[in-house]
Amino acid sequence: MKATNIIFFFITFVHLSSENCNIIMCNLKGKSLKQSRLTSADIDTTVCPYLTISFAEFDNDALVVDKQVSETFPWMWVAKAKNPNFKLVLCFYNAVGVEEFYDMYRTPEKRLKFIPLLVTYLRNNKFDGVQVELAVGYGLWSPLRYNIDRWADFMEDIQKAFTEEAKSSGKPKLLLFGHIDSRKEDYDPLYHVPRIYKYSDFVIVDAWPYYPLRIGPKYNISITNTHHTRIYSEHQGDFSNIDYNVKTILRKGGIKEKTVISLYLMAEFYRRVFGLGFPRYDWVKYDNYGAVGAIMSQGGNVTRVFDNCPIFMSDRTVIYYDDEISLTEKVKYIKTKGLAGFEISDMSADDFKGVFGRGKFPLMRAVNEECRKP
């Protein structure tokens, strides 16, 4: 069993006069629950009524849900009873290179045996859908244990099963969320983009760029010439921006009306290193918006770059982060492009305790406010 990782995706279907920006998603990871002290009492289900919990995985020919995950079910059921708009989604999360998982989805008989087990589990535990995600990255890639077409077949069979079950049961159809990380060319062989979009109700796309962990003259990276969530490129050949990643997916066959862009909004903290010749700033940590407010109260300056992205600077500290102003720009981008919506990839990145003095979850409330505008 993988290390415990609980993810809550909160999706707000906002009633709009237009057809874009109608989905808002928030993601809370298990390690963030422990490290940030975010609790269920902090969560406002009226702001984010769709919750996806992760993870479940395939193991020993069965759907296996981590004990720490299943222990959260009673709280979720109570919350769902109190709020009719509150929905539950299960994240089915597996690493690319796991041979047993690969053997299941590439073999028609085995995947058609597994999918009914998935449907039964979702219904028995009051879930309203599933997100199907591949764990990719260093040490997980294995070209001998992946088949791009069989993975698309797996998505197709899940959607067929959901549709048939809804017809026979008379219940609302279970939702299928796809997931794509196409920020590196190495990941291209993993996704048959047109088919994943065809069979998914919505597709979550990792859209934040990769960025350096060191800045300063020594590394030929200006402090104010980078930001980890900038929207557009500043020069030809700049691929580290949201717009490039979105256009890449759409060019490969993505459907904009189904595309939910996912952004990592944890603030990036850097500290100046002295005594090494050139001025240099090394990465220190990720932290949330509340922690940014605590540092800013001690004095310093805020500079805005690119698309109103803020950078806080003091004598020894540089922080790259997002605030209500910069997120408003990102929502405007989503609406301009006609995309389905927005996901914050870790909900604990917001100021969930109200440290900034702007109320709880000011970032998510800013997203909601801008999405609701015509």
From TrEMBL:
GO cellular component term of the entry, any: extracellular region
SMART domains listed in its UniProt record: Glyco_18
Database matches in Gene3D superfamilies: Glycosidases
Keyword Signal: yes
Assigned keywords, A-Z: Signal
SUPFAM superfamilies the UniProt entry points to: (Trans)glycosidases (SSF51445)
UniProt cross-references to InterPro entries, sorted A to Z: Chitinase_II/V-like_cat (IPR011583), GH (IPR017853), Glyco_hydro18_cat (IPR001223), Glycosyl_Hydrlase_18 (IPR050314)
PANTHER family: CHITINASE (PTHR11177), CHITINASE 11 (PTHR11177:SF390)
Name this polypeptide is given: Chitotriosidase-1-like isoform X1
Gene: LOC106073166
